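[INFO] parsing input record for TLCD1 protein
[DEBUG] input buffer:
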Amino acid sequence: VGGSVAIFAALRRLALAVPQPAAVRSRPGRVWRWRNLLVSFAHSVLAGLWALFSLWHSPELLSDIQDGYSVSGHLLVCFSSGYFIHDSLDIIFNHQSRSSWEYLVHHAMAISAFVSLIITGRFLVAAVLLLLVEVSNIFLTVRMLLKMSNVPSPALYEANKYINLLVYFAFRLAPQAYLTCYFLRHVELQGQGAFLTANLLLLDAMILMYFSRLLRSDFFPSLRKGSAGRDVDGEKFLID
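[DEBUG] output buffer:
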Protein backbone atom coordinates (compact mmCIF):
# COMPACT_ATOMS: atom_id res chain seq x y z
CA VAL A 1 0.00 0.00 0.00
CA GLY A 2 2.83 2.39 0.86
CA GLY A 3 4.54 1.58 -2.42
CA SER A 4 1.33 2.40 -4.29
CA VAL A 5 1.06 5.78 -2.55
CA ALA A 6 4.63 6.52 -3.67
CA ILE A 7 3.84 5.46 -7.26
CA PHE A 8 0.89 7.84 -7.49
CA ALA A 9 2.90 10.65 -5.90
CA ALA A 10 5.45 10.15 -8.70
CA LEU A 11 2.67 10.09 -11.33
CA ARG A 12 1.36 13.36 -9.92
CA ARG A 13 4.78 14.92 -10.50
CA LEU A 14 4.85 13.54 -14.04
CA ALA A 15 1.41 15.05 -14.65
CA LEU A 16 2.97 18.47 -14.14
CA ALA A 17 4.90 17.95 -17.38
CA VAL A 18 1.80 17.11 -19.44
CA PRO A 19 0.81 20.06 -21.65
CA GLN A 20 -2.37 21.75 -20.46
CA PRO A 21 -5.07 22.94 -22.88
CA ALA A 22 -5.56 26.68 -23.14
CA ALA A 23 -8.96 26.39 -21.44
CA VAL A 24 -7.22 24.91 -18.40
CA ARG A 25 -4.28 27.32 -18.33
CA SER A 26 -6.59 30.32 -18.50
CA ARG A 27 -8.46 29.25 -15.36
CA PRO A 28 -6.08 28.74 -12.42
CA GLY A 29 -8.74 26.85 -10.49
CA ARG A 30 -8.74 24.14 -13.13
CA VAL A 31 -5.02 23.37 -13.03
CA TRP A 32 -5.20 21.22 -9.91
CA ARG A 33 -8.31 19.45 -11.13
CA TRP A 34 -6.71 18.68 -14.50
CA ARG A 35 -3.63 17.18 -12.87
CA ASN A 36 -5.74 15.24 -10.39
CA LEU A 37 -7.87 13.78 -13.19
CA LEU A 38 -4.77 12.66 -15.11
CA VAL A 39 -3.60 10.67 -12.08
CA SER A 40 -7.13 9.29 -11.69
CA PHE A 41 -7.09 8.27 -15.35
CA ALA A 42 -3.80 6.41 -14.85
CA HIS A 43 -5.28 4.51 -11.89
CA SER A 44 -8.42 3.65 -13.83
CA VAL A 45 -6.46 2.20 -16.76
CA LEU A 46 -4.08 0.19 -14.58
CA ALA A 47 -6.63 -1.04 -12.01
CA GLY A 48 -9.38 -1.70 -14.57
CA LEU A 49 -7.16 -3.84 -16.80
CA TRP A 50 -5.66 -5.52 -13.72
CA ALA A 51 -9.12 -6.49 -12.43
CA LEU A 52 -10.09 -7.91 -15.83
CA PHE A 53 -6.85 -9.88 -16.02
CA SER A 54 -7.26 -11.26 -12.48
CA LEU A 55 -10.75 -12.59 -13.21
CA TRP A 56 -9.76 -13.90 -16.66
CA HIS A 57 -6.66 -15.63 -15.31
CA SER A 58 -8.49 -17.21 -12.32
CA PRO A 59 -12.20 -17.52 -13.23
CA GLU A 60 -12.68 -20.09 -10.47
CA LEU A 61 -12.51 -17.21 -7.99
CA LEU A 62 -16.07 -16.26 -8.92
CA SER A 63 -17.34 -19.47 -7.33
CA ASP A 64 -16.08 -18.42 -3.89
CA ILE A 65 -16.58 -14.70 -3.36
CA GLN A 66 -16.10 -14.88 0.41
CA ASP A 67 -12.94 -16.99 0.70
CA GLY A 68 -11.48 -17.11 -2.81
CA TYR A 69 -7.90 -15.85 -2.96
CA SER A 70 -5.29 -14.90 -5.52
CA VAL A 71 -2.02 -13.04 -5.13
CA SER A 72 -2.94 -10.85 -8.09
CA GLY A 73 -6.25 -9.85 -6.52
CA HIS A 74 -4.61 -9.14 -3.17
CA LEU A 75 -1.98 -6.91 -4.77
CA LEU A 76 -4.67 -5.12 -6.79
CA VAL A 77 -6.57 -4.25 -3.62
CA CYS A 78 -3.32 -2.94 -2.05
CA PHE A 79 -2.60 -0.94 -5.21
CA SER A 80 -6.02 0.73 -5.27
CA SER A 81 -5.92 1.37 -1.52
CA GLY A 82 -2.71 3.32 -2.10
CA TYR A 83 -4.41 5.36 -4.82
CA PHE A 84 -7.37 6.24 -2.60
CA ILE A 85 -5.02 7.29 0.20
CA HIS A 86 -2.93 9.42 -2.20
CA ASP A 87 -6.00 11.03 -3.76
CA SER A 88 -7.46 11.85 -0.34
CA LEU A 89 -4.20 13.51 0.70
CA ASP A 90 -4.04 15.39 -2.61
CA ILE A 91 -7.54 16.77 -2.04
CA ILE A 92 -6.84 17.75 1.57
CA PHE A 93 -3.38 19.28 1.07
CA ASN A 94 -4.57 21.32 -1.91
CA HIS A 95 -7.50 22.71 0.08
CA GLN A 96 -10.16 21.07 -2.10
CA SER A 97 -11.97 19.26 0.72
CA ARG A 98 -15.03 21.48 0.63
CA SER A 99 -15.67 21.12 -3.10
CA SER A 100 -14.66 17.45 -3.20
CA TRP A 101 -16.14 16.18 0.06
CA GLU A 102 -18.10 13.42 -1.69
CA TYR A 103 -14.87 11.92 -2.96
CA LEU A 104 -13.41 12.01 0.54
CA VAL A 105 -16.44 10.11 1.84
CA HIS A 106 -16.12 7.57 -0.97
CA HIS A 107 -12.40 7.15 -0.39
CA ALA A 108 -12.86 6.72 3.38
CA MET A 109 -15.38 3.94 2.69
CA ALA A 110 -13.10 2.26 0.16
CA ILE A 111 -9.96 2.51 2.31
CA SER A 112 -11.64 1.14 5.43
CA ALA A 113 -13.23 -1.75 3.50
CA PHE A 114 -10.06 -2.60 1.57
CA VAL A 115 -7.86 -2.51 4.66
CA SER A 116 -10.18 -5.01 6.34
CA LEU A 117 -9.88 -7.29 3.28
CA ILE A 118 -6.11 -6.97 3.18
CA ILE A 119 -5.82 -7.90 6.85
CA THR A 120 -8.28 -10.81 6.86
CA GLY A 121 -7.76 -12.09 3.31
CA ARG A 122 -11.54 -12.58 2.98
CA PHE A 123 -13.90 -11.06 0.39
CA LEU A 124 -10.96 -10.18 -1.91
CA VAL A 125 -12.92 -11.50 -4.90
CA ALA A 126 -15.72 -9.05 -4.08
CA ALA A 127 -13.17 -6.22 -4.10
CA VAL A 128 -11.81 -7.31 -7.50
CA LEU A 129 -15.36 -7.35 -8.88
CA LEU A 130 -15.97 -3.88 -7.51
CA LEU A 131 -12.73 -2.65 -9.09
CA LEU A 132 -14.16 -3.50 -12.51
CA VAL A 133 -15.73 -0.07 -12.04
CA GLU A 134 -12.35 1.37 -13.03
CA VAL A 135 -13.01 0.26 -16.62
CA SER A 136 -16.02 2.55 -16.54
CA ASN A 137 -13.98 5.29 -14.89
CA ILE A 138 -11.62 5.36 -17.89
CA PHE A 139 -14.37 6.79 -20.09
CA LEU A 140 -15.89 8.87 -17.30
CA THR A 141 -12.54 10.58 -16.72
CA VAL A 142 -12.08 11.13 -20.47
CA ARG A 143 -15.51 12.77 -20.46
CA MET A 144 -14.47 15.20 -17.72
CA LEU A 145 -11.12 15.97 -19.35
CA LEU A 146 -12.87 16.72 -22.65
CA LYS A 147 -15.34 19.05 -20.93
CA MET A 148 -12.56 20.88 -19.11
CA SER A 149 -10.37 21.31 -22.17
CA ASN A 150 -13.20 22.51 -24.44
CA VAL A 151 -11.99 20.23 -27.24
CA PRO A 152 -13.52 21.53 -30.49
CA SER A 153 -14.68 18.06 -31.53
CA PRO A 154 -18.32 17.35 -30.66
CA ALA A 155 -18.06 13.98 -32.43
CA LEU A 156 -15.37 12.81 -29.99
CA TYR A 157 -17.45 13.81 -26.98
CA GLU A 158 -20.58 12.22 -28.46
CA ALA A 159 -18.80 8.93 -29.17
CA ASN A 160 -17.37 8.82 -25.66
CA LYS A 161 -20.78 9.72 -24.22
CA TYR A 162 -22.43 6.57 -25.57
CA ILE A 163 -19.45 4.32 -24.82
CA ASN A 164 -19.42 5.72 -21.30
CA LEU A 165 -23.11 4.84 -20.86
CA LEU A 166 -22.59 1.25 -22.06
CA VAL A 167 -19.57 0.56 -19.87
CA TYR A 168 -21.35 2.24 -16.93
CA PHE A 169 -23.98 -0.50 -17.12
CA ALA A 170 -21.53 -3.32 -17.81
CA PHE A 171 -18.75 -2.50 -15.35
CA ARG A 172 -20.38 -0.34 -12.68
CA LEU A 173 -24.08 -1.05 -12.29
CA ALA A 174 -24.02 -4.79 -13.11
CA PRO A 175 -21.18 -5.83 -10.73
CA GLN A 176 -22.60 -3.58 -8.01
CA ALA A 177 -26.09 -5.09 -8.34
CA TYR A 178 -24.71 -8.63 -8.37
CA LEU A 179 -22.59 -8.09 -5.24
CA THR A 180 -25.43 -6.35 -3.39
CA CYS A 181 -27.74 -9.30 -4.03
CA TYR A 182 -24.99 -11.75 -3.06
CA PHE A 183 -24.19 -10.00 0.22
CA LEU A 184 -27.84 -9.63 1.21
CA ARG A 185 -28.57 -13.31 0.48
CA HIS A 186 -25.39 -15.14 1.51
CA VAL A 187 -23.29 -13.04 3.90
CA GLU A 188 -23.93 -13.05 7.64
CA LEU A 189 -24.77 -9.56 8.88
CA GLN A 190 -22.28 -9.55 11.71
CA GLY A 191 -18.67 -8.51 12.10
CA GLN A 192 -16.86 -7.89 8.83
CA GLY A 193 -19.86 -9.07 6.81
CA ALA A 194 -22.12 -6.43 8.34
CA PHE A 195 -19.49 -3.71 7.89
CA LEU A 196 -18.94 -4.54 4.21
CA THR A 197 -22.68 -4.85 3.52
CA ALA A 198 -23.30 -1.40 5.00
CA ASN A 199 -20.47 0.03 2.87
CA LEU A 200 -21.92 -1.66 -0.21
CA LEU A 201 -25.40 -0.23 0.36
CA LEU A 202 -24.01 3.28 0.84
CA LEU A 203 -22.02 2.86 -2.36
CA ASP A 204 -25.23 1.78 -4.14
CA ALA A 205 -26.82 5.08 -3.19
CA MET A 206 -23.80 7.08 -4.38
CA ILE A 207 -23.61 5.23 -7.70
CA LEU A 208 -27.30 5.81 -8.43
CA MET A 209 -26.91 9.50 -7.56
CA TYR A 210 -23.93 9.83 -9.93
CA PHE A 211 -25.83 7.93 -12.63
CA SER A 212 -28.77 10.36 -12.39
CA ARG A 213 -26.33 13.28 -12.72
CA LEU A 214 -24.74 11.69 -15.77
CA LEU A 215 -28.12 11.14 -17.45
CA ARG A 216 -29.26 14.69 -16.74
CA SER A 217 -26.02 16.21 -17.98
CA ASP A 218 -25.46 14.19 -21.17
CA PHE A 219 -28.90 12.93 -22.20
CA PHE A 220 -31.56 15.12 -20.53
CA PRO A 221 -29.98 18.59 -20.20
CA SER A 222 -33.42 20.20 -19.86
CA LEU A 223 -33.73 18.55 -16.44
CA ARG A 224 -30.58 20.20 -15.07
CA LYS A 225 -31.17 22.47 -12.09
CA GLY A 226 -29.15 25.27 -10.59
CA SER A 227 -26.03 24.81 -12.72
CA ALA A 228 -26.22 27.97 -14.79
CA GLY A 229 -23.34 30.27 -14.10
CA ARG A 230 -21.89 27.96 -11.48
CA ASP A 231 -18.13 28.09 -10.97
CA VAL A 232 -16.99 24.46 -10.85
CA ASP A 233 -13.29 24.88 -11.51
CA GLY A 234 -12.29 23.34 -8.21
CA GLU A 235 -14.81 20.52 -8.19
CA LYS A 236 -13.56 17.03 -8.83
CA PHE A 237 -16.90 15.29 -9.28
CA LEU A 238 -19.22 14.28 -12.01
CA ILE A 239 -21.29 17.46 -12.07
CA ASP A 240 -24.28 18.84 -13.96
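[INFO] The chain has one domain: 1-17+27-218.
[INFO] shutting down worker
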